[in-house]
Amino acid sequence: MTSSRLEAFSDGVLAIIITVMVLGLAEPAGTGWADLVRSSGLGLLTYLLSFVYIGIYWNNHHHLFQLHPPVRGRVLWANLHLLFWLSLFPFTTGWLTESRVALVPTVVYGLNLLAAALAYYLLEIAITRMPGGERLRAALGRDMKGLLSPVLYLLGIGLAFVVPWLGLVPFVAVALMWLVPDRRVERFLDAHPDTSADATDDE
Fold first, then answer.
1. Which of 198, 181, 202, 80 is nearest to 135 (CA)?
2. pTM of the predicted protein model
3. Domain ranges of the chain
């Protein structure tokens, strides 16, 4: 099985997640700038943070399948596992907003970020263990950002018990860190073009 159906399904789910999040934004109670900030300011900021995270996962997910790995049951379930945690973003983002960044919602949001990161790592592992997966393993290398992200999520969860707003700082830092374009897969493809039949599939 090729990866095109998996990618199309994942793209659709991520698009729905973003739509659900934006529909959850509160409309301003009035017509002035102050009303916008008071009613929707925090919601817009938390939406922006979660939107960036969804965008990062969409971008990196595309990179995973640029190498056209074979898709078998293990990869399908690992991908669904990732989508499960990403699908919770509207819920955890909404709770974080409605609580005005209270302790438990901030911790739950951090746990959601951590679980999604671990699920993405498990998807990488599932792909690299498939025949041909050594190409992805070689392309990713040591993946320092991937190793650092869970540490920062745990730091943010810990800081939330001190001051909930302070816990958001590492979460924002991870998002900013991943906004820097990751060109490992492109560089690998430039150096090692895929001449197999799978490489002719549409990306």
1. 198
2. 0.87
3. 4-194
